[in-house]
Every structure is written in C-alpha cells, then in structure tokens.
Design brief:
Low-confidence stretches: none
Helix content: 40-55%
Radius of gyration: 32 Å
Distance between the termini: 66 Å
Protein name: Lipopolysaccharide assembly protein A domain-containing protein
Number of helices: 4
Number of strands: 2
Keywords: Membrane, Transmembrane, Transmembrane helix
Shape: elongated
Mean pLDDT: 79
Organism: Pedobacter caeni
Structural class: mainly alpha
Oligomer: single chain
C-alpha cells in the first residue's frame, strides 16, 4: 500500500475512535438558541465540513489562458523544395 493510503486509514480510524468516545449529550450555545446535542454529532459535522473546505481550498486551480480561444488550426508546413530559389535548385542538381 502507498503511504498516503495508510495515512488516510489511520486518520479515519482515529477520528472514528474519537467520535465514539464522545457520545454524551451536552448543551451547545448556538448564537440565539441553546440545544442539547450529542458531541458525536457536532464533532462529526465539524470534521465533515473541515474536509469539504480543505478539498475546496486545496483543489487544483483551473487556468484560463489567452491562447485557448485564439488558436487557429495548424497549417501544413510548406514544401521545402518549393521555397528554394531556382539558383539553389540548379546548384543542388
């Protein structure tokens, strides 16, 4: 297995263990409302949101180049024999 895969497996196991340990219900003070919610739910949702934000920030950027829209199809190169002058053609033969 690759190192990245092993790291992801270990990290997932640690998060799962952490979530299973913190299952008790606590009172969370949301800005205007107080609710009794399981720590498991809050930590799980925060972890999920963190993964989504991390992927969103770290994804490869799409680069738009000014060359993308202005490219014309490749023209066939000229035949080198046609671009030679008559004097050069006489010298070669």
């Amino acid at each position: 297995m690759r190192t990245k895969t092993i790291f992801i497996i270990i990290f997932t196991v640690l998060i799962t263990i952490f979530l299973m340990i913190n299952t008790d219900v606590v009172e969370f003070n949301f800005i205007f409302v107080k609710k009794d919610i399981s720590k498991l739910l809050v930590v799980g949702v925060c972890t999920f949101i963190g993964f989504i934000l991390g992927y969103w920030v770290g994804r490869p950027k799409v680069t738009v180049s000014s060359y993308d829209h202005k490219e014309s199809p490749q023209l066939k190169p000229e035949d080198p024999k046609k671009s030679i002058s008559d004097a050069d053609r006489d010298y070669i033969s």
